[in-house]
Prior knowledge:
This protein is of the alpha+beta class.
Amino acid sequence: MKVLHRKLLRELLAARGVLIAIISIIAVGIGCFIAMFSTYDNLEYSRQNYYRLCHMADFSIELKKVPLGDLEAIAQTPGVTNILPRIVFEVTASLEDVEKPLSGKAVSLPEHENAPINSIVIKQGSYFTDQRQEEVIINDAFARAHNLRPGDHIQLILNNRLQDLLIVGTAISSEFVYLIGPGGLVPEPESYGVFYLKHDYAEDVFGFEGAANQILGQLAPQYQRPNRVHQILDQLELELEDYGVFSTTPLSQQSSHWFLKNEIDGLKISATILPSIFLIVAALALNLLMSRMAEQQRTVVGTLKALGYSNQEMFRHFIQFGLLIGVAGGILGTLLGYSLAGAMTAQYRNFFEFPSLTNQMYPRVILLGMLISVFFAVLGTFRGVRTVVRLSPAEAMRPKPPLRARRILLERIHVFWQALDFRWQMVLRDIFRNRTRTIGGLLSATVGAMLLLVTFSMYDSAFALLNFQYDKLLLSDIDLTFKDDHDYSAYFEAQQIQGVDYAEPLFQVGCTLQNGIHEKKTGITGILRDARLTIPRDTEGNRVEVPPTGLLVTRKLADILHIQAGDSIRMVPVSGDRIPRQVPVMKIIDSYLGLTVYADFHYLNRLMGEADSLTSVQLKTNPRPEVTRKIYRQLKQVPAIQTVNSIRDQKDKLQEVLVDQMIVMIVVVIVFSCLIFFGSILNASLISLSERQQEIATLRVLGYTPGEVGSIFLRESFSVNLPGILLGLPAGYWASKGINIAYDTELFRMPFTIYMLSWVMTVVLGILFTLISHWPVQKTIQKMDWLQALNVKE
Length: 794
């Protein structure tokens, strides 16, 4: 073994305590990088393979009714390579042992072969047989939630008639990777499912002989750019105008794809930001360590140079120190990242339905992680050794002259300085005279506190949105949606259901809002002026009155349409007479819900030429479980109801998901933040300890106990970390605000909320981590041989 290699090994063993802390920080950074990028690849590759397997549609067109014979021209449209007409309806399901009415989507499939677009993957049982028409394939998550198997029966209300169907199989499809019901935010497989029917049977039961109400299509690769897709959809919508086009949906706006792609893209961003924080902290800590080590070995370096070792050899020797740390951190980070990726991927299986979603090792991700680890480790080493290596042998062999003792700024404030005891004076002198070390510790504490506050803020904001949605905006317990528009008698009948305390009608109109070249497909919700169950509110939680005429539009939609209060916009209904109407915009409301539009219930009826029509009824019910079950039994007997949404269940489900997700995330971030504090404080304290051995030994000779000596270092840690923690509060505030802005989507935006408890917890945890990090420093002081330290020569 070469001399320099033996020297390197001794130095690694001597500094093992500090190196473990630094390697841990690097490992966490690389672990986050590998975990997030591996999970990103797991999801993205699974998505691509799944879409390819099921021949995912590039667009869909929803319409009232179109004869199949009139679709030949659509299939010949330039850019369109394949189309599939099918029948899709929202339906109600009934199971004997389930009291709550269940909702879902009935989707037609070819009778003898899988669909050429948006095909299904059979999980249990088989595809349709020739034995009977009344067969159904249900989505696998719904089957698991209700313990349904092939051979069981399920009842569906199809076109107002109760049909008993035999389950021949369960399946999944790329169309419903993330399946949510109307108004939902998270999957509820126990309440909402997908029911695949034979196309001929669907034609018969829905009265759609030789017709369809949805067209799926695929495009040639050169036509899949967003602008080309929209051009083709505009052309198709124009050609199908006579058949009542409700909406045209490109793949980018398809509900399941939108949620999945947003999650995947968010992982990619997080995989860049979070690891960078840990690696920068590690580089700073390593820079401090190597600077100190190089200074301590000044004469050794000079001697080796005098013996013939070149500058390049000495530089490579010290750089190897950083290389080994980088490699060690990269290896540990790879193991940690792979384990975390497995846990994250397993968590995603609870929300996204794939044929196979497994955790894989990706060589390019691991290689990139190792290169990043080595880069930051070498970066931290480089600055520390460059100065010493440049010295000539004669100069390097002389000990570094002691720094000129200068008064620090605080010493000039005589009254303040004289009021301090000598230990505080020692602490403050060391802090101000070692500015690089102080700045590194300050930055590490700031980053640690920032991470904590950002995490707590995300928790606070998520629950603030939940409370806004279900405690201020939507106050009903059960929402009923009808298959068709009904008159006011449906409202009176709903009010008479036993257990219902109060009811309110809603009139919802799907439409396209246009302002010049700007347009958006959305819906207008007509509510009563004195509504108590759906209450428009601004971001401050204040009630906003619905104007007697005109529209109340959210700020997000107003920005998309480039409109202001007082403007007039063109409203084109997607159903009914579809005659364009000019409607005034009376108010713009700042809200957390993206594209919501409100109007007065009676005004919207008049605008549509109706007389007190309604599409939904909201119910406020007795919360007792036995009363709720009784209400569900009564609702099961009403075939006109399309969906029954339990707002109470939605809230409970969201709370359950948020609590589970957020608690895991908070625990992980707390552990990672503790590592930042621990590594930074331990590194700085042990370096300071090695520099001041004689000073400590002198104090011990004068009768100071190890605890009293340790208190000096504890004061120093607090003097650096407490300001860092306090600086982390505004840093965390602005970082949280940036994340809040980044999550501003058309669907919703998160309220920017940080509760007082989050501020307090951030400070308390920062102080606690500082105390924990001081423990190994105190143990080192207790074990120090102070008699030997006094014999160290200058």
